[in-house]
Amino acid sequence: MLRGLLCLSVMFGVVAWAQVDPPRVPDRDNIETYRLFGPEHPGIYKHPASITELANGDLYVSYYGGSDEYMQDTAVYGSRLKKGDTQWTFPAVIADTPDHADGNPVVWQAPDGIVWLFYNNIYGKTWSDGRVMAKLSHDGAVTWSDPMVIAFEPGSMVRGQPIVLDTGEYLVPLYQETGSDTEMTASDTSSYFLRYNPKDKTWKESGRIKSATGNLQAQVVQISPEYLITYIRRGGNFLPTDKGYAIRSESRDGGHTWSEGVESQFKNPNSALDLIKLKNGHLLMVYNDNMNERTPLTVVVSTDNDKTWPHRRDIGGGDNTFAYPYAIQTSDEKIHIIFTQNRRTTISHCVFNESAITEFGK
Questions:
Q1: pLDDT tens across 102-118, in order?
Q2: HSE value, Cβ hemisphere, 13 Å, CA-based, for 317
Q3: Which label site among 33, 292, 327, 335 has the fewest CB atoms less than 10 Å from its CB?
Q4: How far apart are CA 83 and CA 60, in angstroms?
Q5: 36 near 338, Cβ under 8 Å?
Q6: What DSSP string describes 87-131?
Q7: 237 to each of 35, 185, 213, 234, how far by Cα in Å?
Q8: Are 103 and 131 in contact (CB under 8 A)?
Q9: What number of CA atoms fall less than 13 Å from residue 87's CA on the CB side?
Q10: Tens digit of pLDDT for each residue in 196-207?
Q11: CA–CA gap between residue 162 and residue 168 (Å, rounded)
């Protein structure tokens, strides 16, 4: 399997992609970027991908691929990087619904060791006919259960990774996409969360997050037992705009109800972003710092619980698109970000320390 290093040139804080040796920078500032899967791997069309660290130290990636976004031949694929290895296993189908399109897989290992695979299934022609499915693995993503439906409301969709609340419950980001239009989402498209209690295996739904142009694909962190924040992809169309900002909402009751979504300081070209809480309590966001194009791919860090975001660095840029970033921090405190590029045919993988962002340029 190819895992060739894409050399990263850094000049004046702008990332350029070229097959040349990068300038010498301190090890703490290194950002390693790899080509993970390309057109030679199953599913020529490749888009939202997710990554998780398993209990044994393996990394596991899931993506969906096929001939195109809405085609019935799309399936969910999985690949593993065993701890200590340098090559990923060849992607294998782990979910495929006959005569229906599948998409947006989210693979995540819960504290009890169960690996969850959430994904979308289209019952009609667009994502507005979607449902959310789930599979479980009790052997570290080696084998999977039969699928089950966890959200059957038309337009139900998943994209973001769950978090574990202070209560021990899981909070899974979902959204309802409406409009049946492949070039825009309707203004009543809204984000919400499913709350799962692993003790009694019950699901409860949070309140919906409404905003002026709609919103989808929320990413959430818990600041304190009662206070949670979420940054969300804006809805609407893909026409040029000077008002393309990510949506922000907050909860003051532990994630049960949410404030109305309002525009944040962060640009958003109607594309996915990711937000995680690091082990030291800092917040990390990765997004497209552009109102109209999915470039550059920018990482920002807050050290004061979302009050300010002074640390930033572009990790991808130039004449390409960087879409659907998905971030995790592994047990060795490395940050891993995967994303799609090259017209949705390639999945790439970045690895770096937090200091590569917070100490960059110092």
A1: 999 999 999 999 999 99
A2: 17
A3: 292
A4: 10
A5: yes
A6: SPPPPEEEE--TTS-EEEEEEEE-TTSPEEEEEEEESSSSGGGEE
A7: 30, 7, 9, 9
A8: no
A9: 4
A10: 999 999 999 999
A11: 12
pLDDT, mean of residues 325-335? 98
Name residue 51's amino acid: I
Helix (H, G, I), strand (E, B) or coil at 220: strand
Q: Which one-letter amino acid corresponds to residue 136?
A: L
Kindly state the tokens that stand for 63.
Answer: 């993506």
Cα separation, 48 vs 105, whole angstroms: 7
Cβ within 8 Å of residue 254, ≥6 positions away: 165, 167, 225, 226, 228
Give the whole-angstrom CA distance, residue 62 versus residue 159.
12
Cβ contacts of residue 12 below 8 Å, gap of 6+? Answer: none
Residues with Cβ < 8 Å from 220, sequence gap 6 or more? Answer: 160, 163, 171, 173, 193, 228, 229, 230, 255, 275
| Lowest-confidence segment of 19-33, 86-100, 196-210, 290-304 by average pLDDT | 19-33
Count the residues in the chain: 362
* Distance between CA atoms of residues 122 and 353, nearest Å: 38
d(C-alpha 160, C-alpha 157), whole Å? 10
Contacts for 10 with CB less than 8 Å, ≥ 6 apart: 22, 23, 25
User: What pLDDT is attached to residue 362?
Assistant: 78
Cβ contacts of residue 243 below 8 Å, gap of 6+?
Answer: 263, 291
Which residue is it, tokens 């590029």?
341
User: What sign results for the dihedral spanned by CA atoms 47, 320, 79, 27?
Assistant: negative
| Residue 17: pLDDT over 50 | no
pLDDT confidence band for 5 (50 / 70 / 90): very low
